[in-house]
Write a structure and sequence with these properties.
The complex is a heterodimer of chains A (157) and B (141).
Chain A: H1 2-18, H2 23-40, H3 48-78, E1 87-92, H4 98-110, E2 114-119, E3 125-130, H5 136-155
Antiparallel strand pairs in A: 1-3, 2-3
Helix pairs in contact in A: 1-2, 3-5, 4-5
Chain B: H1 2-27, H2 31-57, H3 60-90, E1 101-102
Helix pairs in contact in B: 1-2, 2-3
Classes of the chains: A mainly alpha (157), B mainly alpha (141).
Chain lengths: 157, 141
């Protein structure tokens, strides 16, 4: 976390020195700062350097999922006979931290077609309402492999 | 010129998703499906419209505010959807009869309102109106 702050400070310093606080300059400054930190801390690289690529990967995966599901939702809503196979599915929850759990639940809800309904009191199971249950095992695998594993790697050492 | 086209495309896309959410609201057969079509389409539509505004003005102060609004929308909308969905299920709002699976059934303890991973004994379950086959089919007409 402190490395992330340092990286942000480096980005701000870059923007201040180049005299322009446009988003693109800040992004470029962040990338430069990341590279500098990566070079300076070459002996024993902290977890931070794995987290940034993981975060980008998760965001890309999430964005692709949202776009795909939005398209499918549009097709479903506009087709004369809506093809629905709704279901409430219990998915095993492998995440321990609260941040990761709430991120998972929020990301699933933001993806069209899935809605996280509740989490069991012992934090073992997440109940998700889905609009299209094509294949139960595939759906569970998609949640666990696609989101939970990534979040676990990102947030839980 | 280019940014104008981008702004127009974003606004159109945002309005289109809002429109879809509205149609979904009318057509979907039960509460959970309606929530599915509105909670996120609203977020996405509002996000795209806000993004269009940010690009149109190209002002740092406006861009930061737009980003803040989008972040707060994405943080709060799912929480609201989750609370409404949970409360509805708990209160026995019927699932559509075409629902193929309900793993939540028999997992709420009626006396404590706790949700448990193991199945709850029959006498402490929620009343059965939370089950299937309550509402008349809307789609098969």
């Amino acid at each position: 976390m402190s490395l992330f702050l340092l990286n942000v400070l480096l980005a701000l310093a870059w923007a201040a020195l180049s005299g322009s606080f446009q988003p693109l300059d800040l992004l470029f400054g962040f990338a430069l700062g990341y590279l500098v930190l990566w070079l300076v801390l070459h002996k024993n690289r902290p977890r931070y350097f794995r987290q940034i690529p993981l975060l980008l990967g998760l965001l890309l995966y999430f964005l692709a999922d949202v776009l795909r599901a939005n398209f499918r939702m549009a097709v479903t809503i506009l087709s004369p006979r809506m093809k629905l196979r709704p279901a409430v599915v219990a998915v095993p929850l492998i995440l321990k931290s609260e941040t990761a759990t709430i991120l998972l639940a929020n990301m699933l809800t933001l993806t069209p077609g899935t809605l996280s309904l509740d989490i069991s009191g012992d934090r073992q199971t997440l109940y998700i309402h889905t609009v299209w249950l094509d294949d139960l095992e595939a759906f569970r695998r998609q949640v666990v492999e696609g989101y939970e594993k990534r979040l676990k790697e990102l947030l839980e050492p | 010129m280019l940014s104008e086209i981008l702004v127009m495309a974003l606004m159109l896309a945002g309005a289109f998703f809002m429109f879809l959410a509205g149609i979904g609201m009318m057509r979907m057969p039960d509460l959970f499906l309606r929530m599915s079509s509105t909670a996120k389409a609203g977020t996405l539509g509002a996000g795209l419209l806000l993004l269009a505004a940010a690009i149109h003005f190209g002002d740092f102060a406006i861009t930061t505010r737009v980003l803040a609004i989008i972040v707060f929308l994405m943080l709060t909308a799912p929480v609201a959807a989750h609370m409404i969905g949970r409360a509805a299920y708990f209160d026995g709002v019927p699932l559509w009869k075409g629902t193929v699976r309900d793993d939540l059934r028999g997992h709420y303890r009626a006396s404590t309102h706790a949700l448990e991973t193991d199945s709850i004994p029959e006498e402490d379950r929620l009343p059965d109106e939370a089950g299937f086959e309550v509402r008349k089919p809307d789609l098969d007409r």
